[in-house]
Amino acid sequence: MKSKVYFTSARAKIWDVKYSLPLKLEELLNKIDLKKYISGKDKVAVKIHFGSLGAFRTIRPVFVKKVTDAIKRIGGKPFVTDTTRIESLQYLDIAAENGFTHLTCGAPVIMADGVFGRDGIPVKVEDAKYIKEIEVASAIYYADAMVVLSHFKGHIQAGFGGAIKNIGMGGVNPKTREGKSNRGKLHSVDDKVPKWIKEKCSWCKQCEEVCPVSAITIIPKEIYEIKEDVCWRCGRCARICKKGALDMPIAQERLATHIVEASKAVLSTFKPNKVIFINFLMEIQPECDCMPIADTPVVNDQGIMISDDPVAIDKASLDIINKATPLPQSAAEDLGIKSPCDVLGVINRKDTELILNIAEEYKLGTKNYEIIEVRRRDDTNEEENWE
Ligand code: SF4
Ligand code: SF4
Q1: Mean pLDDT score of the chain
Q2: Cα dist from 183 to 127, 135, 188, 236, 277, whole Å
Q3: Which CATH fold would you assign to the domain 3-185+251-373?
Q4: What is the pLDDT of residues 189-227, one digit of tens each?
Q5: Which atom of ligand 2 lies closest to the CA of 210?
Q6: How far apart are CA 252 and CA 135, in angstroms?
Q7: For 265-301, how does the pLDDT look when each residue is reduced to its tens digit (9 = 90+)?
Q8: Which end of the chain is more exposed for a tag (fewer CB within 10 A), N or C?
Q9: Does residue 344 line the site of ligand 2, with CB under 6 A?
Q10: Which atom of ligand 2 is nearest to the CA of 227?
């Protein structure tokens, strides 16, 4: 059975607002028929990534509001939410700076795991190889339905970030109430903190600055310490270290399996047919929105996809990006990539199919999909000349 992925292109050739991308998103939401997933009075988590200080290429609030408006039209009660990545009150400030407020999103903007990032409910993962239990952020756990909005882009560890990663990493709290590692279990093997390699270190202190919980203390040329009990195992320090002096002890296959197992935990908290996924293939930059920067896009904006299958939508998103011509003045040009290819995988030196294959094994969905292109916003059946 093929999963349906509805798609609308980012191209806009007709000078009429109904062909603008925000209004095309409305049409996509009509096509998928939200009423099949959301009932009146359902409390609906609209899961998003708020971005970081400096990572501004997040989903624009105008699209978030189209989603919350559509939910409200059928009687649902949406709230826009993410889990703690840096200290929550600061993260909410950054969310506002990146444009996500109650006013702009048309719904309350809240932390799914509370002010301290420790508000989660333990969930067992059936047939898991590694993550047999993980806490799911409480506001997601208790929500009746969820709409997952994912900014599709590259990722240094996973190759790309889309729907699966958004729920797996993004649906769980960093620490438990007792202060034990929760999301950190996903980023490392056996809950280890990053390993410091003294010979490579230039004592630049960038890792200390980027750590969200001040777990690193450096006194140049003398002391380098990571406090194990404080560290969230988020891997930010290892990612930004230009000298390769910090090693997050995990291989891609293991990380991908962890993410899939956590995604399975998050999805298991919903009844069937209560979660849908919207991927925004726009400002497709090489790295995650967690980083303290956003680089120029590596391919042009492609459009928006919507599906109830996280595997199908991520596979369809990758496929369309892989057919696009890489852009000059981007990380693609830096690597001499000129022709269409698995550009996010090549840039991040990762196998982008791996997580999809694992997600299929765990029955999160299928890579087998059919694209239904939504080209117009009115409801007549007449052909429209798009040129
Ligand atoms: S960022 Fe890397 S090189 Fe700089 S102090 Fe940290 S470990 Fe050393
Ligand atoms: S992994 Fe690194 S950046 Fe993340 S909390 Fe631990 S020390 Fe800080």
Answers
A1: 94
A2: 19, 8, 9, 13, 22
A3: Rossmann fold (3.40.50)
A4: 888 999 999 999 999 999 999 898 999 999 998 899 999
A5: 3
A6: 22
A7: 999 999 999 999 999 999 999 988 988 889 999 999 9
A8: C
A9: no
A10: 7
